[in-house]
Amino acid sequence: MKLLDSHHKNKIMEKMHSILKLTRSVNLLPTLLLTFSGGFITNPSLNKILFSYPFICTNIITLLIMSFGMVINDIFDIEIDKLNNPSRPLITGKISINEAYVLCFSIVLFISILDYTLPNNLQLFTNIMLYGITIYTPVLKKIPLIKNVYCASTISFAMLYSGLSTNQELYQTIYYNKHFNILLITMRYVFFGSLKNELLLDICDIEGDKKNNIITIPILIGKSNSWLLINGLLYSNLIFLTFSLNSIYNNIYIKIIPLSSFIPMIIDIYKIKKSNYEKSIIDKTLKNAMGPMFIILLYMCVLSYNIKI
To answer: Which stretches are transmembrane (predicted)?
Structure first.
């Protein structure tokens, strides 16, 4: 009997692990970092945001929408993943297609329940995000560059969603609120960084995408030109951040920390070129990008906390 119980527990644990892998639970912490930053930048008070129901609710909804998108993506890409990602749970059989559909339905149901308790303006944002994620894989993902821009926009949009949940007054003061200006600068940084990462992922998947007749930017213009585009995005991000910070603080010393965070990213990008676009180097670059992003988000939170309206 004990052996049966142990076997049953192992099965449950294995299933839970597969669900976490299917929903890309590894992305939960970076997502929370973004949403927390969005909330704190617009309302820099830990007491106010940590005890704010809309803030907590929008954070949970964002994580659920992200997880829903991952599951939907794997359902539609099951044939492609046999080449590009053979270790995915739907490919290995650890999660069945029916189980994936049940999981999707459960997530959407939970999102709908939580969304019902939010103010109407936030409900609109929830519906936009959920609709966009739903049509991404079957429609937008097939359009080169559009799919990359959409992914990057969704990631940066999550900060706005969270930010508006902590400061409803932004709707009236949006054009001259300095906290909102800092949020926009941060969102732009996240957008360019995410777009760069999306193109790097496309370079990783180029062989599998070719076999499945999927058109991406690296397939259209080649790896070398894609690398130039990625490099351009990185330097554009650096330039935009420099000028944006200058509009808030005309002090070079204050800008040293965020701008110096670009140095390791620039080095990693050139390592990719030197390695002839080796997948392991690209994977390492994507992981390393978390450090500079954390520095920038922390910096923007501190900047918002100390700024005078």
So the answer is: 21-41, 53-76, 97-116, 122-140, 227-246, 290-307
